[in-house]
Structures are given as structure tokens and as C-alpha cells.
UniProtKB/TrEMBL annotation, chain A:
GO terms for biological process: lipopolysaccharide transport. Pfam families: ABC2_membrane. This is Transport permease protein. GO terms for molecular function: ABC-type transporter activity.
TrEMBL record, chain B:
Keywords: ATP-binding, Nucleotide-binding, Transport. Residues 6-251 form the ABC transporter domain. This is ABC transporter domain-containing protein. It comes from Candidatus Beckwithbacteria bacterium RBG_13_42_9. One of its GO terms (cellular component) is membrane. The lineage of its organism: Bacteria, Candidatus Beckwithiibacteriota.
Length: 260, 251
């Protein structure tokens, strides 16, 4: 394990290059370029605001619906992209994998980091939205790094897991985007756990993404300490999944070049 | 005692015929109900193969198509692993299996040198250092800012070869790549290889069907057929019998 991590560190420049390649290749030759990273979440938020904020009047405890949903969408997009891109990227890089050696976990890791670029842009937009809606900043902001760390851990473990699992069951290449879409409705993005009945709130103990999304909302919008049960579940889930996925990933790595 | 750079010990590698294939749901269900696992036809790309390459040696590998030459290189590069037996590698190994594999078509020549170099495990500092040499050797000075999707195949070959040789690994593995590029570049490559092989720290394993290239640089040749070593020994002697064998197949 230590040996593998040391090797991974040696290949840090490769991770950087993969990330730059990912980001550049994603937005090069499009007229809007990096603008896509701004437009996508804003449009989605706009649609959510019209349908769930205005038509259906989802309760937000007094927070303007655009910020309420944008904050959740930003975190959700980052995690869901890590799952779907993680699943597709090992197979998408098959030509390199079957011809050159490098620690293969570089690919899912780079995927997560390149999604971070979009998350960074979303965070700036988020900041502007908070100012626009006159939502004040309190000392609770210092809790953000903790939530962010859990979010990163979760994204990496999910990317590793979906990458390895997709190699074993190729069907997941199609199943994962579909499952992710379902998971979106099962996560508190268009609604908040806070405003659900007690018996429904318990259901969200089974969704580790809840802790992260509601965590950000608590800290930035409601100025309170996040629900530690949800956050603890997110953390515990990420640590356990990170370990198991890494072992799983290392096992399939040995025959990866033969099957991709 | 000379140091061993690369050794294969009773290595067997099996592949499924028709490539890897995913059992369908029906086969899974069938296997569960009948208790039998699904059998798929396999073949042995390498069959209990053993050999060693000393440090500083320049070894050529010849053999018919499908003899297992490329599988050997892939194992030496840690791309794939044996089903049985073991492979020992002392030092770093870099290979040229196909020239443009690490390249990304949307990126420029310059960016691709850094991409490919980093795939081969080089640091940014090291790449900054070798970059001018790579450009000079490839002769692509005016084209480094162009996306490589506009390169010709010969230009790609030049760039790939130039990067790989400047990595200076302990073991350099080359598979059939010198045949691309124009005559002038080929001769430049062979001249470079001859010089490169003279250094006692450079171990080279060279797979090719161009026997004159093998003759030019290899001190020893391993002849393989059907995943086994037929003969290993002095270049000229092995090649003589190998040529006779190949001609015999056409009669």
C-alpha cells in the first residue's frame, strides 16, 4: 500500500497532465469554451426555480429558491460527474492502458480533479448569488473545508469504485448514468431534508450524499452547525468505500490491459 | 557475474479466443442453475517460457506473427501480467509498442511531448530539460504548435520515437516501429540505436521483422514460435535457421 502510494506520488506530474488534457479537450473547439461550465448549472437552476420554486412551491424555510438549489446542484454535479466519468474513463483510455504502464488509479483521480475545475467555477457563482440575495457570511464558513474534504473523499472513492466495477461488468457503462439520474431524485437537491416529515428524514441516513448537500446549506444558508449524523454517515461511508474500492481497483488492475 | 536486467521464469499467458468476452445474463443464470462454470476457448500466447536478458545486452526477438513477441514486451512493461510463472524487471523499462499511443489528437505537438513524457513517468523538470533535444531529433521544429491531428503518420512516428529514446530507461523495448518514417529518418534512428546500444548501461530488447536492423544492433537473438523459445544464441546463427524456417513455410 505504501509502495503504491509512493509510486502514485512519483507520477504526480502525469495526474496534472491528465487533468489539463481533460479540461482542455472538454472545452476546446467549442465557441463558449469554459462558459459551458457557467451556463449549465445556471440554466438548470433557472428551470428548477421555475418548476419547483414557483409552480410547486417547495419549502425552503425562507431561503430564495435559486441559491437553495444551486448550492445543492454544485455539489451534486461534482459527485455525479465523478461517478459517471470514472466509469467511462478507464475504458475511454483503453489505447493508452494497453500500450503504456503507469499506475492506473491516475485516471479516476484525474477525473475527479478535473471535475473540481467546474466545481470551482460553480463556487464562485455561488458566492456571487449569496451576495446578490443578501445572505450574510458568518463564522460557520470555517466548517466548509471539512465538508469539502468529505466531498472529495467520497468522489474519489466513488470514481475508483465505478471505474473498477465497469471493467468487470461492462453493462454498468449504460446502467450508471441511469442510476445516477435516479439517485438525483433521492438526494435533497430540489427539496431539503429539513422540511420533510420525521419518518422520511430517517430514510436519508441511507444516502451518504445527504450529509454533504445539507452540510453546505446549513453552513452557508441557515448559519448553523450541520447535522452531524448525516455528515458522519457521509464521512464513514467515504472512508470505508475508499478502502474497499482501492483494494478492488488494484485487483482488477492486473488484468485491465487484457480486457479494456 | 553480470547483472540480470530482465528475466522470465516459466511464464504462461492465456487469452480467451476472440478477445475478452462478457458472459451474458443467460449464461450467468445457466451457470448458477447447472452449477457448471462457462467454459470459453482459450489459447496460450506464452507457454512456460523462460529466458533472461543481462544488463547491457542487446537482444532481438524474432518469430512468426502470433508467436508471442509483443506479449513478452507487454509483460516487461508491466502492462499485462502472467497467469503462471513470474517476470522480474530490474530497473525502469520504457517501450515503444506503437508510436502514437500516448498522444491526444486535439493537443499540439508541444503539449503531446509533455503528455507522453508524463505517461512514461517523467517529471516536468526532466521534460523541460529534454524537450529541445526531442524537437531537434524529430526535425519537427516548425510544427510543434500545431494540433497533432493534422500531422502525417510519418511525423507522428518521428515525434514518438524522439520522445521514447530521450527518456533513457534502464531497459528499452522496441516493437516494430522503425519501419515508419522516411528513409532518412529510419537511417537516423538506426544510427542512433547503434550508438545507444554501445553504452554498457543500456539494455535493449528489439522486436522486428526487418532482419537487417536486427543484424545491425543485436548481439543475441531469441527465436520464438507458438509461445515457446525455439532457439536462443548468436545473431547470425539463429537468423540463418530462422530464415530457412520462414522460407520453408511457403513451399
Amino acid at each position: 500500500m505504501l509502495k503504491e502510494l509512493k509510486e502514485l506520488y512519483q507520477y504526480r506530474y502525469l495526474i496534472t497532465t491528465f487533468v489539463i488534457r481533460d479540461v482542455k479537450a472538454r472545452y476546446r473547439q467549442t465557441s463558449l469554451g469554459i462558459g459551458w461550465a457557467i451556463i449549465q448549472p445556471l440554466f438548470l437552476t433557472g428551470i428548477f426555480t421555475i418548476i419547483f420554486g414557483n409552480f410547486l412551491k417547495v419549502s425552503t424555510s425562507g431561503i430564495p429558491y435559486p441559491v437553495f438549489s444551486f448550492i445543492a446542484l454544485a455539489a451534486w454535479t461534482f459527485i455525479s460527474r465523478s461517478i459517471t466519468a470514472g466509469s467511462a474513463n478507464l475504458i475511454g483510455n483503453s489505447t493508452i492502458i494497453s500500450k503504456v504502464y503507469f499506475p492506473r488509479e491516475v485516471i479516476p483521480l484525474a477525473t475527479v480533479i478535473s471535475s473540481l475545475v467546474d466545481f470551482g467555477i460553480s463556487s464562485i457563482l455561488m458566492f456571487l448569488l449569496l451576495i446578490f440575495y443578501h445572505i450574510s457570511f458568518t463564522w460557520h464558513l470555517v466548517l466548509i473545508p471539512i465538508i469539502f474534504l468529505i466531498q472529495i473523499l467520497m468522489a474519489i472513492s466513488l470514481a475508483l469504485f465505478s471505474a473498477a466495477a465497469t471493467v468487470v461488468f461492462r453493462d454498468l457503462l449504460f446502467a450508471i448514468p441511469f442510476l445516477v439520474q435516479i439517485l438525483m431524485y433521492g438526494s435533497p437537491i430540489i427539496y431539503s431534508v429539513k422540511n420533510l416529515q420525521r419518518q422520511f428524514q430517517i430514510l436519508f441516513y441511507f444516502n451518504p450524499i445527504t450529509g454533504i448537500i445539507e452540510g453546505y446549506r446549513s453552513v452557508l444558508l441557515y448559519h448553523e452547525i450541520p447535522n452531524l449524523i448525516y455528515l458522519g454517515i457521509s464521512f464513514g461511508f467515504s472512508i470505508i468505500l475508499l478502502w474497499t474500492s482501492y483494494v478492488f481497483f488494484k485487483r482488477i488492475e492486473r488484468y485491465l490491459a487484457d480486457v479494456v | 557475474m553480470k547483472k540480470i536486467a530482465l528475466s522470465f521464469n516459466k511464464v504462461t499467458k492465456k487469452y480467451f479466443k476472440g478477445g475478452h468476452y462478457q458472459p451474458t445474463l443467460r449464461e450467468w443464470a445457466g451457470a448458477i442453475f447447472t452449477g457448471k462454470s462457462f467454459q470459453r476457448p482459450q489459447f496460450k500466447a506464452l507457454n512456460q517460457i523462460s529466458f533472461a536478458v543481462q544488463k547491457g545486452e542487446v537482444v532481438g526477438i524474432v518469430g512468426s506473427n502470433g508467436a508471442g513477441k509483443s506479449t513478452i514486451l507487454k509483460m516487461a512493461l508491466k502492462i499485462t501480467f502472467p497467469n503462471e510463472g513470474s517476470v522480474t524487471i530490474n530497473g525502469t523499462a520504457t517501450g515503444l509498442l506503437e508510436l502514437n499511443t500516448g498522444f491526444h489528437p486535439e493537443l499540439t505537438g508541444n503539449e503531446n511531448v509533455y503528455l507522453y513524457g508524463s505517461i512514461l513517468g517523467l517529471s516536468k523538470e526532466r521534460l523541460d530539460l529534454i524537450y529541445p533535444h526531442v524537437v531537434k531529433f524529430s526535425g519537427l521544429k516548425g510544427f510543434m504548435d500545431m494540433p497533432i491531428k493534422h500531422y502525417s503518420s510519418g511525423m507522428l512516428a518521428r515525434l514518438g520515437f524522439s520522445i521514447a529514446i530521450h527518456v533513457e530507461p534502464d531497459i528499452l523495448l522496441i516493437d516494430e516501429i522503425l519501419s515508419v518514417g522516411d528513409l532518412a529518418f529510419q537511417e537516423k534512428c538506426m544510427k542512433f540505436m547503434k550508438n545507444y546500444c554501445r553504452n554498457p548501461n543500456h539494455t535493449v530488447v528489439f522486436v522486428s521483422h526487418l532482419l537487417e536492423n536486427i543484424r545491425a544492433i543485436c548481439t543475441r537473438v531469441i527465436w520464438m514460435e507458438h509461445g515457446k523459445v525455439v532457439e536462443s544464441g548468436k545473431t547470425n546463427e539463429v537468423l540463418k535457421r530462422y530464415i530457412k524456417f520462414q522460407r520453408g513455410k511457403n513451399e
